[in-house]
Design a protein that fits this description.
Number of helices: 6
Structural class: alpha/beta
Shape: globular
Distance between the termini: 23 Å
Largest sheet: 7 strands, mixed
Order of helices and strands: EHEEEHEHHEHEH
Number of domains: 1
Bound molecules: guanosine-5'-triphosphate, magnesium ion
């Protein structure tokens, strides 16, 4: 069988760590479109993604994961739909230190509602160690209240193994819903 390709989307609020997560796992130098951040109210970091991030992971059988990161800022939300087209799954990243992380979840869950409705999504809660509220259970409830089911786990997007764990959980979720044949996480452990 010829190698397959899987498109995965990292989305979530400004500073949640989409660019960082892709850089943590990509085997190629990630393509970044970060520009100077003029929205220090949104997040006090030096740069922000204007169009997309792109990274790749090749699995041992030759299958390829194409990793796309969206811009966080809603003024670039036209990119969300463009990037989401044809994706296998969506990773929603949350920065739990932001003022209203549950609202952030609702905003991005709505924007990527198709993936959630088809059980092709996972939620990663960042900065959990320093900001344990809202709790994982509250995020579960928020997902349920939207009428969806998606795994929720705490992650440090700077850690490769945490990002791979997110992908593993996402693939299990997709497989359980019997939507698609999915890659095996065991194939992803080679750097
Ligand atoms: N201290 C700390 N820093 C973290 C943690 N998780 C992520 N970060 C940092 O938060 C920042 C996230 O920035 P980006 O990866 O640019 O975030 P982004 O989601 O791509 O943001 P936009 O492109 O602006 O939407 C990085 O500097 C990370 O190192 C954490 O748990 N603790
Ligand atoms: Mg970014």
């Amino acid at each position: 069988m010829s190698p397959r390709e899987y498109k995965l989307i990292f989305t979530g609020s400004m500073g949640a760590g989409k660019t960082t997560a892709i850089a943590a796992v990509s085997e190629i130098e990630p393509c970044s479109t970060d520009v100077a951040n003029n929205d220090s109210g949104g997040h006090a970091k030096a740069t922000t993604t204007a169009a997309l991030d792109y990274g790749e992971i090749t699995l041992t059988g030759g299958d390829k994961l194409r990793l796309y990161g969206t811009p966080g800022q809603s003024r670039f939300d036209f990119m969300w739909k463009i990037l989401g087209q044809g994706s296998l799954g969506v990773i929603i990243l949350i920065d739990n230190s932001r003022p209203d992380p549950l609202r952030d979840l609702r905003d991005y869950a709505q924007a990527f509602g198709d993936a959630l409705a088809e059980s092709r999504a996972v939620v990663g809660i960042g900065r959990w160690q320093t900001h344990p509220s809202p709790s994982i259970e509250e995020f579960h409830e928020a997902v349920r209240d939207l009428g969806y089911a998606a795994p929720v786990l705490s992650v440090d997007v700077r850690e490769r193994r945490d990002v791979l764990m997110l992908l593993d959980v996402l693939f299990h979720q997709i497989e359980a819903a019997e939507q698609h044949a999915v890659p095996a996480i065991a194939d992803m452990e080679t750097p």
